[in-house]
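Re: Re: ligand-bound prediction request (bumping)

Still looking for help on this. To restate: I need the protein modeled with guanosine-5'-diphosphate bound, output as structure tokens. Inputs repeated here so nobody has to scroll up.
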Amino acid sequence: MNIHEYQARQILSDHGVPVPAGEVARTPDEAAAAAERLGGSVVVKAQVHAGGRGKAGGVKLAKTSDEAREKAGEILGMDIKGITVRAVLVAPTEDIASEAYVGIVMDRAKQADTIMVSAEGGVDIEEVAATMPDAIRKLAVDPRYGLLNHQAAGLGHFLYDDPKAARQVSSIIVKLYQAYRASGATLAEINPMIVTSDGEVKAIDAKMNIDDNALFRMPEIEAFRDVESENPAEVRAREAELTYIQLDGNVGCCVNGAGLAMATMDLVKYYGGDPANFLDIGGSSNPDKVVAALQLISEDPNVKSILFNIFGGITRCDDVANGIVEATSRIDLQVPITIRLTGTNEELGVKILADNGFEAMVDMDEAVKTAVERGQ
Ligand code: GDP
Ligand code: MN
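Reply:
Sorry for the wait, this slipped through. Here it is.
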């Protein structure tokens, strides 16, 4: 789950990371009032689940509260990477001497949380990685020991020549790592981490991504969820207890089981197609889920062909077949549908489909190939 900058700032600040105080505003007048309280000179920042807000015009400086009202008026309602800005963060301006990058990501290949730092901050870290790979130092944290102080010190001295700044940032990195671990994060990024003209190191931006599977133990973070800024299809999928990720291909996939869903996507690619989504309808025998799934897929305008790939284990083929019949009677499908059905109660399922005018295949390759062809 993505959270907003102001929410990530809260988490970091709770763990002792120095973050300037800020206030969230949803109207220009609220922004002006916040600026008044913060002393007038502020930065007004779009709160959306997207990076690169600065470049998109979503971060503006204001010298007075009237100017903050004006800038908030410009930013609120703005479209940043397809998301409408509904709130801004108003924070005191800082006197910036330098900007650095500090981030932690879960690196699945290394099987470790990996800390990345660079003195080339404020810009896209991907760009730094591509053009100046030596400007980034990475540290894979051994999960048995956590982040050790000497390692944090090493990162600090890589970032800053000034020993005072290096010490401050080392201690911030330790706190950032604690915040990351405690929140079940898969990403925590401070870009930029600044040194002020009086030599103080602080975080003036924060981005965190929380592992959905860690949310159950952190209701206070779950409460940060902003449904309005999430993909509407994914929100509905979650409500229907489906695991759905929207992609940009044209073959809609409806599969039972995450492993089979991944294999199906691979095979779609293998036969020259592009999956429109990842969708796991789960192992249950519930026709309502099939209806919800088909509804989601059919509403994606990119979908030109729909593929069901069902391997009946706990899931019974007859239930899925009933779900498909029910769903197609309720939804006016505009695209061809290809069904692969095998396993528990296969004969029954195939018969139900045949009685309703659907052909079912047993072979996965054949079904995927057909679905890809039908989408072209
Ligand atoms: P992002 O573009 O979405 O990553 O948003 P950031 O919060 O990183 O802001 C972009 C840039 O705006 C930063 O790199 C800073 O250069 C600048 N900025 C942000 N906050 C302040 C501030 O308080 N004072 C000044 N002078 N610049 C700021
Ligand atoms: Mn940033």
